[in-house]
Amino acid sequence: MSSPMTSMAAMRSFQRQPKAGREIPKGTVKRILGIAGPYRRDLTWFLSLVVVSAVIGVVTPLLAGDIVNRIARLDGTAGDIVRIALFIAGLAVLDAGSSLAQRWYSSRIGEGVIYDLRARIFAHVQRMPVAFFTRTQTGALVSRLNNDVIGAQQAFTSTLSGVVSNVIGLVLTAGVMFTLSWQITLLSIVMVPLFVLPAKRIGAKLQEITRESYGLNASMNATMTERFNVSGALLVKLFGRPEAEVASFSSRAARVRDIGVLSAMYGRTFFTALTLVAALATALVYGLGGSLAFDGSLSPGAVVSLALLLSRLYGPLTALSNVRVDVMSAMVSFDRVFEVLDLEPMISDAPDARPVPTTDRSVEFDRVTFHYPTASEVSLASLEDLSLPEHGEEATVLHEVSFRAEPGQLVALVGHSGAGKSTIANLVPRLYDATGGTVRVGGLDVRQATADSLRDSIGVVSQDAHLFHDTIRANLLYARPEATEEQLWTALTGARIAALIASLPDGLETVVGDRGYRMSGGEKQRLAIARVLLKGPGVVILDEATAHLDSESEAAVQKALDAALAGRTSLVIAHRLSTIRAADLILVVDAGRIVEQGTHEELLALGHRYADLYRTQFSSGEETVSPVVVSS
Predict the structure, then answer these.
(1) Which residue among 67, 248, 354, 467 is the one 20 to 30 A from 515 at the CA level?
(2) Domains of the chain, first to last
(3) Percentage of the chain with pLDDT > 70?
(4) Burial of 450 (0-12, 13-18, 19+ CB in 10 A)
């Protein structure tokens, strides 16, 4: 009868299916072989051991039949039988050793492929522009790193070894069985459709319920991810309905439970069908073989050998009947991995890129225009679960923006929400590339600057300072890994938060929590400022760094900003105009254009857009915070 392992392997082959999507591009096989290149020697040993196991699987039944013949005919001596039995035992030990070696090589190859692909995808994704992450569904991207990489890895282990071992085992087994009795072999093969045809139907049903199970599991994972992070948990606590949340989750979990029961029953039906057909075939061998043995046309040992070989015939036949699905599933997984690796980053170093000059800290915009890239330029439809077709041309966000911030100057950007202030700021560190015109830092076009030097030259504090779920020390060292203890405390002192950190029981080893939620808004902002101070850039960008703080926290952060901006070229996006009265230059942005520019007094004297904004805020009582005063 079929071994449980063989039967389960056959059952899994009916569950696997290629995922729907685009056609497999030409050259995919060549690229797969390229990935296998570093493991060529391991693959050779692995496949050689698979062949050894297949040969042992055929030789053992023949030796068992020889023992039966010797006993039936009383041919030879007891010592001969013992020697054959010891040889069979030796083959069993060799097969066990071969199995362990196969597993070692299989793990080495499989885990190596997983490591190589994951490292390549992770490194490649790190090079992608911000626009890629604003469009991509995080879960879909993580799936490429996990599910598809593992699916690709299986091509080198389970699929490849399964095909090779099944082909060799089937050819050897069928060949030996034909030499023993062609009549019994043909009748055994004729019985295969009795198992394969029902199994195909069971396999189709398993595919259907497996698809639904994957979808429900993904939905549950997405729900848990959203509800279990700090932001999601707070939203549920404040606005959610616990009973509805539990009911929604429970209904999906119940369906997964029901699918699990169905899958188990279909799997057991499959296994029972294979077992039943193998049992019927074994009965046929003993019945017909026994009759032939009495006629003298078949030896008793041959009957035993045929019965033992029969268990090695049906498993490979059923597995190979669905091998195309296995191969296509692996090909699709590889293609989905290659799809991400083939997506070229929109922003990368130019071939002749050079470092940003350290002697010039100016920032200049020269007739800059910009529109956000389309989905096809920066992302993949398969990574955007809710991606919709785009119509028409992208709207231009910035129009002929020109200004210059001299070294050490503070330039403020003001205007209504959506005017284009943050877009201007994002072009300086090259989070996006200008569509037209030139952005210069230190007199160098940012498109000609190396990414490393640009990153080192610019520090950013956003209105929602992000902290990793790690210690305060680790979050600070992220900006400058080689910083000393003294430098860390100097930065914290400059950010007006050293006393608070020193008062904590764990000090710098305090874990800030998911996204820094264990810290208040003002504390997070001051830690972000300390991170910039530790980095020590020549250019600092503040994107409404105090917009959502209360008056007390804002006052503390403003004092920290004095240290952060001192002696540095600063680009400040201001929500409260009172914070930028002392700015060297104020740019009023409206609909992607600079409509006014000058100092606070000059713009008030004009009596136009800035003056209107200032009077609106003054009348609403927002003028309560001291302005930024930069000491040079």
Answers:
(1) 248
(2) 4-341 (1.20.1560.10), 407-434+448-619 (3.40.50.300)
(3) 78
(4) middle
